[in-house]
Recover the amino acids of this structure.
């Protein structure tokens, strides 16, 4: 139990569907992150939120839309995805955005796009 | 910009043997260095991190890593492998003094044979 909870753990969606991934952290952290983990690729940082404000968007396609309503919750809204978007999506949090802070990961949401 | 190279995408050892997972980094400023472990179907968990205090860092589960500036390395070791150590291991780097993002290596999958 890392203090970062992701739901659902598994999701299968068609290319025309709209779905959302949810993340909640119980650590009192100020920064939250979405990462994408694909086979044989390094972890890709997608979005960073600090104190509910988006501070980084790493050229992620607009079919991925993050939302951070408060410092404990982070969503990733998905629409019109492609099969190559199938991956493990990891949510994470850290006390702040400073570089020495440990990042705590959730267990991930496995997404399959059919 | 920082980067991380993990030599060997797969490492196989016998139970009780030494574990050595290699990580070399590139950074123009003093780095923070991390090792994370990912067990099957789980998120990433911090094993240990170097933050410019002692160069030999001890982590959880008997792992340790040594920061060697002259070799730009931060190799992960464990004297005696257990079956439960089978997992994927990720080295990561960020720079001190800034808010640079954490850059991950591609990972090394460790197999432990009975």
């Amino acid at each position: 139990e890392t203090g970062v909870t992701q739901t659902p753990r598994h999701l299968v969606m068609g290319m025309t569907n709209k779905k959302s991934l949810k993340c909640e952290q119980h650590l009192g952290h100020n920064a939250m992150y979405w990462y994408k983990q694909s086979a044989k690729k390094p972890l890709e940082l997608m979005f960073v939120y600090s104190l509910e404000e988006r501070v980084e968007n790493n050229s992620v396609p607009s079919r991925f839309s993050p939302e951070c309503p408060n410092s404990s919750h982070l969503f990733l809204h998905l629409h019109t995805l492609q099969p190559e978007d199938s991956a493990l999506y990891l949510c994470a949090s850290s006390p702040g955005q400073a570089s020495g802070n440990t990042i705590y990961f959730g267990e991930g949401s496995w997404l399959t796009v059919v | 910009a920082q980067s991380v190279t993990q030599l060997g995408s797969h490492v196989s050892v016998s139970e009780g043997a030494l574990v050595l997972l290699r990580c070399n980094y590139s950074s123009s400023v003093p780095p923070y260095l991390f090792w994370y472990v990912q067990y099957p179907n789980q998120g990433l968990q911090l094993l240990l991190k170097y933050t410019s205090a002692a160069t030999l860092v001890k982590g959880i589960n008997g792992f340790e890593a040594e920061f060697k500036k002259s070799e730009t390395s931060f190799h992960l070791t464990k004297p005696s492998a257990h079956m439960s150590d089978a997992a994927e291991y990720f080295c990561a780097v960020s720079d001190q003094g800034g808010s640079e993002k954490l850059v991950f290596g591609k990972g090394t999958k460790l197999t432990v044979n009975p």
In short: The radius of gyration of chain A is 13 Å. The first strand of chain A starts at residue 4 and ends at 7.
